[in-house]
């Protein structure tokens, strides 16, 4: 009889544990996140998802890829998503148009430009002067990649409107295809496309816009001011998970990070992902913490102003909320 009682007791305990597990799963707070593109540039985000850091913080993250900053911001404004991962310049554009519910940058993911200059031919001793007289296939006008690109060109004494033929009317998703089809002598590309082109002999990386443009709040998580006030615990949990992922990426090898995030890049060889992660790590593109500091904010506006795309200067405190990031950094 004693063994029957023990068996019954073990069964009760097992059922209780299953019940508690089910309850905990059911209590996860769902958060809808929209990323502006799928990129190895966002490696810490995928690490947080794959390693279960969000779940550890009680969150269930529903990640959507919404091509284009304007479309991502539209989804945020219309409550299609709760949090947007997009260039910080979009929050300035929204503010300039007028809003009763400001968009707040609350956690920074990347801190440099993530694009590379790709030439059609191999150039062993590249000089920026070689862009003069060329056809340059740039990014969308008004977007951070294009503005940072023009900033770097001017830094090297190249006037984009006079010294080369600048093409920037091609949709973001089709830029790489246009170059592969023969358009342009140079193109500004994100990873992993730049490395894929190099591997396939379609183009060759000759320079990094990230190392040339300085620190910027290039990609940040943002949400409506009302959401951050009403869902402050959710925002804090989200930022805590992000900080854990940022630490992981900084501390672990590019090879380990590549293995973890490969499910998000199924058609790309893990060795190539490792190359890209190492490239971004070596040039300091991944933010080491989620705090968007004032110097970065001012550099962003300087780049926008240089490109003639700054609708109005916006004070740091107006659109940057560091409350969650500072707590997470501790």
Automatic annotation (TrEMBL):
It comes from the Bacteria. Gene3D superfamilies: Periplasmic binding protein-like II (3.40.190.10). It is found in: Periplasm. Transmembrane segments: none annotated. Keywords: Signal. It holds the Pfam family NMT1_2. The keyword Signal applies. SUPFAM superfamilies: Periplasmic binding protein-like II (SSF53850). Its main location: periplasm. The keyword Signal applies. Residues 1-24 form the signal peptide. Belongs to the bacterial solute-binding protein SsuA/TauA family. This is SsuA/THI5-like domain-containing protein. It comes from Lysinibacillus contaminans. The lineage of its organism: Bacteria, Bacillati, Bacillota, Bacilli, Bacillales.
């Amino acid at each position: 009889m004693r063994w029957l009682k023990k068996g019954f007791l073990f069964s009760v305990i097992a059922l209780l544990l299953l019940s508690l597990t089910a309850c905990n799963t059911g209590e996860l707070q769902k958060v809808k996140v929209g990323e502006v593109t799928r990129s190895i540039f966002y490696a810490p985000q995928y690490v947080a998802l794959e390693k279960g850091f969000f779940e550890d913080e009680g969150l269930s993250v529903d990640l959507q890829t919404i091509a284009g900053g304007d479309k991502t911001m539209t989804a945020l404004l219309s409550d299609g998503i709760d949090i947007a991962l997009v260039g910080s310049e979009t929050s300035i554009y929204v503010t300039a148009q007028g809003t009763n519910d400001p968009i707040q940058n609350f956690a920074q993911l990347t801190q440099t430009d993530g694009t590379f200059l790709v030439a059609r031919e191999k150039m062993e001793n590249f000089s920026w002067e070689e862009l003069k007289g060329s056809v340059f296939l740039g990014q969308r006008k008004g977007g951070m990649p294009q503005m940072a690109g023009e900033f770097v060109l001017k830094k090297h004494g190249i006037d984009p409107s006079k010294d080369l033929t600048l093409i920037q009317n091609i949709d973001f998703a089709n830029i790489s295809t246009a170059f592969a089809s023969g358009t342009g002598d140079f193109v500004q590309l994100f990873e992993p496309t730049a490395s894929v082109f190099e591997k396939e002999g379609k183009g060759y990386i000759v320079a990094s816009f990230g190392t040339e443009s300085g620190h910027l709040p290039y990609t940040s998580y943002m949400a409506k001011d009302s959401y951050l006030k009403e869902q402050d615990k959710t925002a804090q949990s989200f930022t805590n998970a992000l900080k854990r992922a940022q630490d992981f990426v900084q501390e672990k090898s590019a090879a380990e990070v590549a293995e973890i995030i490969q499910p998000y890049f199924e058609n790309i060889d893990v060795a190539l992902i490792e190359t890209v992660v190492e490239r971004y790590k070596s040039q300091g593109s991944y933010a080491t913490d989620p705090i968007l500091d004032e110097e970065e904010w001012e550099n962003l506006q300087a780049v926008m102003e240089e490109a003639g795309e700054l609708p109005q200067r916006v004070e740091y405190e107006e659109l940057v909320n560091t409350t969650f990031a500072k707590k997470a950094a501790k």
